[in-house]
Amino acid sequence: MGNMDTKSALAYIASVYRSISETDDKSDISLFAVALKYSELRPDLQEVFPHIFSFMPGITLPQTKHTEYGSYAKSEGIKSIEVETKAFLDFWSTLNSKNTSISPLPKKVFISHGRKEDWRKVQEYVERTLEIPTLELAQEANKGRTIFQKLVDESDSCGYAIIIMTGDDLTTDEQIRARENVIHELGYFQGKYGPDRVCLLHEEGVNIPTNIAGWVYIPFPEGGIEAALGGITRELKHL
Question: Domain CD-NTase-associated protein 12/Pycsar effector protein TIR: where (predicted)?
């Protein structure tokens, strides 16, 4: 299906999600044809929606019709397609909504972070001072889910995200950068919640990738994330 148009691609992705989500038995062999076709068409879908697919992690796809379906289903392959198509539809819905405003206070704030423990001070401040519940992914039960599936599921209960970009890694040219999961989740939540629902806290000296260089952020010195707490208050109050 070369030269796939936007309308057809969107309808196809929705149909794949419905087919998988509405089948209780994920080992049902009828889903194998769905998985094979999705594997075949995914490159075309990426060409139609390059921005959205750039935030999707790698998933398990059957390579040929000779792939053993039982092993594929047990490897969470079918489930990974379900998670990806659901995440895609969440992105599309938010990006194309005419009204991305949310209620005065989000029902829960998702906190994304790297290795450093600065996020704990943010969580304590938001919960105790601002009296808004938070969610931090590692504190939630895994329930046998992949990390991305867990992110998609748990973020459904939140209406806002605080992304804490600290210097956790070094690039090959010795630049300090944030963890890759933090960069990924920044884009993910921008698409899922909308730009007005994401607050970025940036540790001074940490490299900012060029694709987000224009993003407005709240700076704080290394070891001094308290300096950003007032900015968090302003961002949440405007909602």
Answer: 108-220
Structural domain boundaries of the chain? Answer: 6-95, 109-237
List the chain residues with pLDDT less than 50.
Answer: 1, 100-105
Look at the domain 109-237 and name its fold.
Answer: Rossmann fold (3.40.50)
Token pair of 231, please?
């900015």
**Cα angle 22-25-26, degrees, rounded to a multiple of 5:** 85
Distance (Å, rounded) from C-alpha 63 to C-alpha 119? 40
- Helix ranges restricted to H, the chain: 6-21, 30-48, 50-53, 69-74, 77-95, 118-124, 147-155, 180-193, 229-237
- 73-84 pLDDT, tens digit each: 666 777 888 888
**Exposure pattern of 164-183 as b/e (b: 16+ CB <10 Å)?**
bbbbbeeeeeeebbbbebbb
Instruction: Return phi, psi of residue 63, to 5°.
Output: -90, -35
User: Which positions ≥6 away from 223 have C-beta within 8 Å?
Assistant: none
| DSSP SS3 for 124 | helix
Instruction: Residue 191: count other Cβ atoms within 10 Å of its Cβ.
Output: 22
- The three-point CA angle 170-60-182 to 5° equals 30
Instruction: Supply the pLDDT for residue 103.
Output: 47
Q: Which DSSP helix (H) or strand (E) runs through 112?
A: strand 109-112
